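RETRY 2/3 - previous attempt timed out on the joint model. Re-submitting the same 227-residue input unchanged.
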Amino acid sequence: AQTVTQSQPEMSVQEAETVTLSCTYDTSENNYYLFWYKQPPSRQMILVIRQEAYKQQNATENRFSVNFQKAAKSFSLKISDSQLGDTAMYFCAFTYNFNKFYFGSGTKLNVKP
Amino acid sequence: NAGVTQTPKFQVLKTGQSMTLQCAQDMNHEYMSWYRQDPGMGLRLIHYSVGAGITDQGEVPNGYNVSRSTTEDFPLRLLSAAPSQTSVYFCASSYSFTAYYEQYFGPGTRLTVT
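RETRY 2/3 succeeded.
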């Protein structure tokens, strides 16, 4: 069975500071993909960043980067220079096949001015 | 491209009523799926389809039916609504045979069953 766990239901960070959101997963698959999605109050799901398990290099997208530890099955998201617009729910997700995605329960991030 | 569209945006049903949530995409994606989002539980897969005429169950399929007669449309039917089906429903689609498996999500339907 595939599971994704986000152990931080809610986090806060001051504007311009850095915050790290945690995600762990469990799978017996060797090739898979990991994602972080952002869901602002508008409810729209927005892809933030993705990582292929076969790539050792951590993915980076502007202020967003991941720390992918395959052996530990850990996939954390680091947000640098936090902005008010980063306030949202963040979901970690995993897939290894066609269309079955597994999501964590989410972390609510509040960026304070 | 409109992307993934869902109708209605909001719906209130009485227990026992039936209804269909509509989902359409104009990106020629083969894969489409339905999720429900409940507080503290993230998104859970209800049903998915890998192409027209092919559907399969996800994690929480009970009480829901789907069909896929065209590539564009993937409606979700609630046969006899129950309060436990109060949730936000998301439709998503993606290409097949890509290196990224990125899903594109619709805006969601908030359903309340009284």
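Chain A touches chain B at residues 4, 6, 9, 33, 35, 42-45, 47, 50, 52, 91, 93, 95, 98-106 (CB under 8 Å). Closing ticket.
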